[in-house]
Amino acid sequence: MRCVVLDDYQGVALANADWSGLDVRVLREHLDDPAPELADAECVVVMRERTPFTAELFARLPELRLLVTSGMRNASIDLAAAQEHGVTVCGTGSLKTPPTELTWALILGLARHLVAENAAFHQGGPWQSTVGVDLAGRTLGLLGFGHLGRAVARVGRAFGMDVVAWSPNLTAERVEPEGVRLAPGLHDLLAQSDFASVHLVLGDRTRGLVDAAALACMKPSAFLVNTSRAPIVDAAALLEALRENKIAGAGLDVFEVEPLPLTDELRTLPNVLATPHLGYVTESNYRTYFREAVEDIRAFAEGRPVRRLA
Questions:
Q1: What pLDDT sits at residue 128?
Q2: Is 152 in the same domain as 172?
C-alpha cells in the first residue's frame, strides 16, 4: 500500500516502528491543504487532531482506502463521510500518563516562575527575581474527573493541595473516595481555585464553557491550565483576562489553530506559559502510536482491520 504519514514534526515515525515492506512517505511540515500531497495515497496516518478529514477532503482523495489516527478518538475526522467514501478508519492505543505529567509541568512552571528565572540565569539577569507560589494548602480545581482528572488530583493531593472537582454529571460518590470535594457548579469551582485545570472532552456542552463570566469568577492570583482542548475556553475572553491581568496567568498546551500563528497575541503575553501541544508527545506514546499504526495497516491489507473506528 502507498502510505503517507502526516505531521511527523520530529521526524521519528520511521524509527519507532518496523515499516518494512510498506511504501511509506513521511511529511514533516504541517499542510493546511494536504490533498495535493495525498493524491495517490491508499493509506494516511494522522497524528491526533492536527489535520481535519472532512467530507470535502475525502472527496478529493479517490485512492484513499485506510485512515489511521493515533488514539481511539479523533474529533477532526468525519467518520460518516469516511464510510460514505469507502474509507476504513482505525486507531491506536494511547497512554494516560503523558498529559498528566505535562499538566503538572505547566502548574509547577507557573507557580515557580521557571521561564523567567531560567531566562535570567542564562542571560546574566538578576539572581532571584520572583517569589514562588506555594502549592501545599492551595486549592486545585479540576474541570472534569475522568482518567486524566483523577490522575492530576492524586498528584495534587500528594503536594498537600485541597482538590475540588466539577463536571456536568459528576457526583460526590465519584470524587470523595479520591479525597476530592465536589463543587456545586463551574463558577463556584473557579472561584475557589488557586489553580484550575481543564480535563473535559470537547463537545456541544463544553465548547466555550469557560467564558468571560466564568473567568470573572477567578481570583486575580489564580492560574488557568488547559491541556485538554482549546475551544473549551473562550479564546477572546481568556485573552482579555490575561491582557488585563484579571487572572495571574495561564498554562496552555492546546490552541484553536495549530501551529499557532507567529502573530498571535498569546505569544507576546508574559503571563502565558505555553507548549506546542506536547501533552501526548513522549517516547512511549510515540512507540505505541506508530507500532500500532503499522499493525493497523498490515491487518487491513490482510482483510481483517483492527481497532476500527469506522
A1: 97
A2: yes
Total tally of structural domains belonging to the chain: 2
Name residue, grid cell 494516511. 44
Can 229 be counted among the known catalytic residues?
Answer: yes
- Structural domain contains residue 309: no
Closest to 1 in 3D by CA, of 82, 51, 68: 68
**Residue 161 included in any domain:** yes
Told to judge if 181 belongs to the known catalytic residues of this protein, a careful annotator would answer no
Whether residue 216 is found in the same domain as residue 80? no
Residues 113, 199, 229, 292: which is the catalytic one?
229
| Span 132-155, pLDDT tens digits | 999 999 999 999 999 999 999 999
d(CA 310, CA 308): 6
**How many Cβ atoms sit within 10 Å of the Cβ of residue 194?**
21
Residue 20 is assigned to a structural domain of this protein: yes
Domain shared by 83 and 146, yes or no: no
User: What was the pLDDT predicted at 49?
Assistant: 86
Domain boundaries, position 42: 2-95+282-301
If asked whether residues 135 and 226 sit together in one domain, one would say yes
Q: Which residue in 42, 138, 277, 292 is the catalytic one?
A: 277
Burial class, 77, CB count within 10 angstroms (exposed 0-12 / middle 13-18 / buried 19+): buried
Handedness of CA 156, 157, 160, 163 (dihedral sign): positive
Q: What is the pLDDT of residue 236?
A: 98
Residue 187 among the catalytic residues: no
Spans of the chain below 50 pLDDT: none
Q: Closest Cα partner for 185 from 211, 161, 165?
A: 165
242 in any annotated domain: yes
139, β-bridge pairs: 162
Give the active site residue among 157, 258, 291, 307: 258
Q: Which residue is associated with the grid cell 504519514?
A: 5
Grid coordinates in use for 89? 478508519
138 and 254 together in one domain: yes
